[in-house]
User: Which sequence fits this backbone?
């Protein structure tokens, strides 16, 4: 068991080490669509690469999620075959969002440094595929709310 301080230090070390291992600028929040973001998630149980649609405007969320759903077969066939679409994803904060994500299938615990390298490789590849998908279909996705 780790104290809060030890846990915080390990999380900081995890992300710093990831940034040094894969030094590049990720798309993440720079999609040019408010509340439509790519994220890395790592905790004591899992590692995920996500596309979160989380506006407080439900109509906007539905339109964006529906637009990505129209691309689901392309996303699966050409980019991320293990992608999961969750239209009712409950965050730890209690907020419900639409989350489209891939999960690292190896053993992972952010408190176990021996599991980090596999997660780093997964993060790099999965986010790269998500970014490629977004780059290829950005204009189509934006049509949901900008036309």
Assistant:
């Amino acid at each position: 068991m780790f104290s809060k301080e030890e846990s915080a230090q390990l999380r900081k070390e995890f992300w710093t080490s990831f940034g040094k291992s894969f030094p590049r600028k990720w798309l993440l929040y720079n999609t040019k669509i408010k509340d439509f973001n790519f994220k890395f998630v790592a905790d004591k149980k899992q590692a995920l690469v996500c596309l979160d649609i989380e506006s407080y405007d439900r109509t906007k969320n539905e339109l964006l999620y529906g637009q990505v759903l129209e691309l689901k077969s392309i996303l699966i066939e050409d980019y991320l075959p293990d992608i999961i679409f969750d239209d009712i994803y409950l965050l730890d904060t209690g907020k419900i969002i639409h989350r489209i994500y891939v999960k690292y299938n190896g053993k992972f615990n952010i408190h176990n440094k021996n599991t980090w390298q596999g997660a780093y490789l997964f993060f790099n590849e999965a986010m790269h595929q998500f970014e490629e998908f977004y780059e290829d279909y950005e204009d189509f996705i934006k049509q949901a709310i900008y036309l």
Notes: DSSP finds four helices and four strands in the chain. The mean pLDDT is 95.
